[in-house]
């Protein structure tokens, strides 16, 4: 997983206050990491996917994602928000994993990523560590222990 989630993709103490600002930031992160050339394309992809149904998965966690031809390589961005944000009318979120998957490899990579992350995110110990660890290197190590 160390090629999919790098230390530069981990954002702790994020002061973002809305889903909109989070999607905007994630789009910028993807563009800065050269995952995608145009941040707007990624932003639209996130919103298009979110329009299908909420990517909130419970326990204060959301996994927004999109599969686009313009995405260069599979990537995961992690944000631990300082304050929970309203994700849906009945859900507050403070941990966000944003998945970017190339359309050409979408099914295989997309399903593997989602299933492995979902498996880890039901582990209370893992989620507790995500919330308590305060160093990017520690979070990166935690994610890199996940097998794809």
UniProtKB/TrEMBL annotation:
Domain named PTS EIIA type-2: residues: 3-146
Cellular-component GO terms for this entry: membrane
Sample GO molecular function, one term: protein-N(PI)-phosphohistidine-sugar phosphotransferase activity
Organism superkingdom: Bacteria
InterPro entries the record matches: PTrfase/Anion_transptr, PTS_EIIA_type-2_dom, PTS_IIA_fruc, PTS_SugarTrans_NitroReg
A GO BP annotation: phosphoenolpyruvate-dependent sugar phosphotransferase system
Keyword set, alphabetical order: Phosphoprotein, Phosphotransferase system, Sugar transport, Transferase, Transport
Pfam annotation, one family: PTS_EIIA_2
SUPFAM superfamilies (alphabetical): Phoshotransferase/anion transport protein
NCBIfam families named in the record: fruA (TIGR00848)
The name this protein goes by in its record: PTS EIIA type-2 domain-containing protein
UniProt source species: Holdemania massiliensis
């Amino acid at each position: 997983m160390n090629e999919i989630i790098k230390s530069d993709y981990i954002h702790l103490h994020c002061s973002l206050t809305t889903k909109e600002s989070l999607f905007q930031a994630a789009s910028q992160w993807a563009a800065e990491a050269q995952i995608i050339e145009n941040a707007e394309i990624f932003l639209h992809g996130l919103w298009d996917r979110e329009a299908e149904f909420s990517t909130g998965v419970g326990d204060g966690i959301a996994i927004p994602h999109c599969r686009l031809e313009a995405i260069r390589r599979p990537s995961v961005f992690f944000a631990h928000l300082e304050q929970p944000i309203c994700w849906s009318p009945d859900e507050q979120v403070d941990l966000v994993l944003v998945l970017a998957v190339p359309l050409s490899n979408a099914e295989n990579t997309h399903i593997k990523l989602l299933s492995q992350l979902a498996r880890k995110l039901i582990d209370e110990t893992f989620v507790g560590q995500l919330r308590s660890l305060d160093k990017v290197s520690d979070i990166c190590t935690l994610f890199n222990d996940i097998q794809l």
